[in-house]
Amino acid sequence: MDRHPDVARQLAEVINDQSPQSAETLKTAISSLIRSVRDRLDMEVGFLSEFNEDQRVLRFVDCARDANLVSAGSSGPLKDSFCEMIADGRLSQLVPDTAASGEMDLVPEFSLIPVKSHVSVPVVLSDGHTFGTFCIFSREVKPELNNKSLLLVRVFADVIAALIEDARKGSEENRKRQDMILGLLERDELLLHAQPICGLHDKGIQGFELLARLSTDLDLSPAQLFIDADRLGLSAAIGMRVIEKSRHALAVLPEDAYVSINVTPAFLEACDITGIYSPEESQRIVLELTEHEEIADYDLLNEKLRPLRESGMRLAIDDAGAGYASMRHILLLSPDMLKLDMSLIRDIDQDRDKQSLVAALRGFAQVQGYKVVAEGIETEAELAELETLNVCCGQGYLLSRPQPVDTFKS
Length: 410
Description:
The protein is of the alpha/beta class. The protein is 42% helix and 22% strand.
């Protein structure tokens, strides 16, 4: 059985992966490729160097367990280095025996590192620029190295070049997206709309959920804005802007209505919003926890929530009933309110399983003293079924679409 990795399959996986490479995924991908080639050729060391002005820097290194001859990050003069001589053609790219070829005497570095065999090629980007070199070497003579070995290294060097260019492109795209988000904040183009939360029996407005909207005509949805902000480290800036704008909403919306604000556990851990609201404002705030991932530390989150809840703010669990994560939130955070996921509400009048689950959640909430809000009500039939199930409150397009806050000015 072949003990070597399936390099063809690995190449196909890398080539077919169309996602932009982050710094961490780039490191993982290139390191894995270097190891695959080194193992396939039964060599001891593999590295990718970069030519940085007049320096040669080893960016990625993979060594056999007993062959830590070079290390990632090490650098030296580029001029007349082994890598420069490979790049400009002064040395052969395939050398099974450096002593027999005379390279031992030509390359000063070989007096420090006993390279007895190597396969080394330039890494050339699509614009013709030489990024550096991809080198595989051993302290042993390797007479079995041949043109197939060289072809393998060249193919992987091309893949590595493509990964590097993809990462650079992704980095530039991230910078542009970051500038765009910061520009939105600077120009105050992040707006808040309000969607009424109504009693299902009397249809009276009990509260409003604040939802982010963009005043500018960009090919970017509010949902994607928050996804990008999280990926680029701007979630706190976006979240704090929403918190700041919510004070205007509190001043405009009817005083007897509460105001629900979407927050994530990560935002609550990163940002201290205690003291932002007056005591009267805090009494009207509901923090709507939006999180589909499992929370790692509920004790920490409860500690962050404690002063906010003591000030009068209430806690709602969003998307209740949608999965395991929301149920853990309910059990470990003891919220004041459950917001039933719209997937449970859609066509509930025709689905006995949904009816049973909503009835169970409503019964549990009643025992615990939690208020229940049904999200995403769109038809009269859904509304009628929810009333039959004694769900007290709801929101959705049937009752009212989200509208600018000033629309509901008291």
